[in-house]
Amino acid sequence: MKIAKTGLLIIGVLVTLAGLTWMGQGSGYFPYPASSFMINQSPWILRGAMVAVVGAIIVWISRRM
Questions:
Q1: pLDDT of the chain along its 65 residues, tens only?
Q2: Domain count across the chain
Q3: Measured in whole angstroms, how far is the alpha carbon of residue 1 from the centre of its chain?
Q4: Domain span at residue 53?
Q5: What's the pLDDT at 7?
């Protein structure tokens, strides 16, 4: 059970960070890499927020186990 809990926690943190990165690129605050198609594209702000919320839910579930 501890392996599953740790695995879910790691996956949740990584998913949350990916969502926050997408939000940063979509808003233009994190323009890396410079050739990214996501920079200053507002749909990626919403998509990133949804992914970050899913990641936070995964982290919450892992903490409740």
A1: 899 999 999 999 999 999 999 999 999 998 888 888 999 999 999 999 999 999 999 999 999 98
A2: 1
A3: 25
A4: 2-64
A5: 96
Length of the chain: 65
40 backbone dihedrals φ, ψ, rounded to 5°: 60, 35
CB 28, CB 39: distance < 8 Å: yes
| The token pair that represents 61 in the structure block | 């579930």
Give residue for tokens 């997408």.
22
Residue that the structure tokens 């410079």 belong to:
34
Which two structure tokens, joined as six digits, stand for 22? 């997408």
Question: For 7-28, b where at least 16 C-beta lie within 10 A, e where not — what string?
Answer: ebbeebeebbeebbbbbbbbbe
